Amino acid sequence: MYSEGAGDREGGYPEPFSIRTSPRRESILAVQRAALAAVEPGAAVRRHFRLEDGRLSACGQVVDLAAVDRIWVIAAGKAAPAMAAAAVDLVGDRLAGGLVVTKAGEAGRAPGAGPLDILEAGHPIPDERGVRAARRLADLLSGLSARDLVLVLMSGGASALTTLPAPGLSLADLQATTSLLLACGATIVELNTLRKHLCLLKGGDLARRAAPARVLAMILSDVVGDPLDVIASGPTAPDTTTFADAWAVGERYGLETRLPGPVRRYLEAGLAGHLADTPKPGDPFFSGVQNCIVGSNRLAAESAVAAASAAGLHSLLLSTFVEGEARQVGRVAAALARELVSADRPARRPACLVWGGETTVTLTGQGKGGRNQELALAAAVAMEGLPGVLLVALATDGTDGPTGAAGAAATGDTVARARALGLEPAAYLHDNNSYPFFESLGDLLMTGPTGTNVNDLLLLFAWP
């Protein structure tokens, strides 16, 4: 995950100063490595997918391949290359074809994808490459029969990477809508509620287009609670939201007059019943669809706890449902750190508290950063002067917001070190400017893209 020291090793990355100089460095890194290894996408697929004696088993379902003429593999998301490579390896010469769509710069992670075409697209703001990829997917799904089997491998990021605007909408309309929601601090649930009603292939539409073919979907979850209709905007799951829910998201953030005109008119037409809503539970074509979660934030968090325990730390998994404004969650983390130091609660030191989820940032400043960096900065301010604590805020995909960092590390002396350099932490926090703050301190988490994506992890270490 990190290089030895300051990135002098080929392909390596510098460790944060607070970790590199810690006498407990190896224990800290072991916990992080274990969390990411547990959700390595290829391994996740192999754990749930078997092909033996002409029978394919996946997530408790068995398909007799005597009834299958062709097997197709469709993979989309940040983890798509590794997931696709695992599926191709398992299917072998039964593969008829397919497509892989991943984030720009990630295609090189799919050397084992064999005959599958690998496309790159923009994220989190969709681009024309994503539109072309979505059209390719739609074309691939047309004309399938009941003797076709489609293996769908979905991971976080797939929603932006496969963007096919609904009739009457343009890519620019969806780009503007996405940017507005991100700036408002909308959650992924809210963002994907709108996407499902403005974009094709989402909200069960992929499964509808594949019918009557059988669909086995293996999903790496990047959404708190693992709701199937939200992850990647639920392309193979019945949609539980409506046009009314989509409109309500815009109202919640006061966007009714700021949304692009075509988007507003499209939602109004849906509200009036002039447009068909997304496929719902009970639609008959879902009888041929099996959805399976193969990796999640909970799995990563549980593995972090196990590794911390093996390293001699008293470890607790507090929650994998953490959401909310990043700076507020950072203050809660700091409060827990103070409880550890003052009373050895909720665990006796040496301790490691683990929790996961995904926070949001409401942009009010002009700075550069990400949700985990902002969380760590808020925690650092609230932990000022606290001895023997280290907080690690990590995006498991290696990308925190529009930066090249995965997050940041903070300790009780972060504020003092910053002020010694002439930096005022509160001013950086006020301006949403956490990236240059931690860059100056050498405390950014620079993992590079990890090839997986299961939300964020917060690791709080405390020693006597």
Structure report:
With 464 residues, the protein is an alpha/beta fold. It has two domains: 17-39 and 297-462, MOFRL domain (glycerate kinase, domain 1, 3-Layer(aba) Sandwich), CATH 3.40.1480; 41-162 and 201-241 and 278-295, Glycerate kinase, MOFRL-like N-terminal domain (Rossmann fold, 3-Layer(aba) Sandwich), CATH 3.40.50. It has 17 helices and 17 strands. The protein has helices at residues 17-20, 25-38, 41-48, 80-91, 128-141, 158-161, 171-183, 188-198, 205-210, 243-252, 261-271, 297-310, 326-343, 371-382, 414-420, 425-430, 434-441; strands spanning 49-52, 55-58, 61-64, 70-76, 95-103, 117-121, 148-154, 164-165, 199-200, 214-220, 289-295, 314-322, 351-357, 389-395, 407-411, 444-445, 456-462.
User: How far is it from the N-terminal to the C-terminal residue, by CA?
Assistant: 27 Å
Low-confidence stretches: 1-11
CATH superfamily of the largest domain: MOFRL domain
> How do the strands line up in the largest sheet?
6-5-4-7-10-11
Short description:
The protein has 464 residues and is an alpha/beta fold. 37% of the residues lie in helices and 20% in strands.
